[in-house]
Amino acid sequence: MNPVWRFLKAFGQFWYDFIIGDDWKIAVSVVLALAVTLALYKAGLAEGAVTVIGGLLVLVAFTLALAIDIRPKTKK
Amino acid sequence: MNAVTWGLVAAVFVACIVEMVEATTIVLAMGFTRGWRSAIAGTIAALIALAAFTIAAGYALATWLPEAALQLAIGTLLLIFGLQWLRKAIYRSSGRKSLHDEDAIYAEEVEAARKAGDTKSGIDMFGFMVSFKGVFLEGLEVVFIVLTFGLSADNVPAAAYGAAAAIVLVLVAAVIARKPLSMVPENTLKFGVGLLLTAFGIFWSIEGLGIFRDGHHSLEFPGADLAILYFLAAVIALSWLLITLLRKPSRSASRADTPTASTPSDPPHHTSGDDAADSTQTTDTLTPEATR
What we know:
The complex is a heterodimer. By secondary structure, chain A is mainly α. Chain A has one domain. Helix content of chain A is 78%, strand content 0%. Chain A is built from 3 helices and no strands. By secondary structure, chain B is mostly helical. Chain B starts with a helix and ends in a 35-residue tail after the last helix.
């Protein structure tokens, strides 16, 4: 394979690894937690409460992502 | 300097050491097997490309994005990046993933370089491109961290000084050692950086949600910057709890209790040195570093 093409492929892979990484569920959990936080703010919750709850939501979403990742897989 | 700036410099410094160690391993492997001329040329070309990318990306981000949008965009990326490092660190510390091994990566790079065949004349393209790719891609992560931390904390120079100090330290160590810097406790450093990136990422991404309100002003945490410390404490506590809960039982216990014990999912291949030696393996016994 052409070295330049190989580098471009690696560059694309870098951004994929950067955002999606080993586990796509991490990126999804972050986006979902932030979306729920925004929804809480739009629903009229106080700004201070929204920020603290939002931070905790991120940690809860991360924990859930890990729980899904390591759940026992049943044999087919 | 205030506490936030010190945290910023520390996070950038440690992250930069981790990435520089990985890049140095690749360049050393190419230098010793394919020749120093091509390895150094690839490294210099990558540093020039990185400088150009940093100036362009930094200017574009700082000029075109309002503050809250900048916080949301880079805070979210920082958070995803930090949680990915934290995930790996938690799996490694609980014995569910093998530790990062610079010696193994070095051996793989040397083997690949030997198989690539000789170049008849001029610069060795294999050594050049592998060195370029290694330095550029690992350096890109450093640039990203410097830019995101620097712009969000409105202190790019502090972040740049932290990165520069780490680069000088690793280069001096590599020149003295003349071998992969496997003595650097990379897994422990990555754990620390993952914790810091996650705490800062939470703070900035949530502040950045203010872009969606009238006036587009950032949201404010109770206690302002002190919230970063509260979240850092929360992330440390959660990580400790997860490591304790996920600690893999011994093989015999595992066989008896969970016949279909699962392992973390990983993609089949990686291109960067970061995961070359640790993508899909799990350890059966805890090493001293894993239990730290």
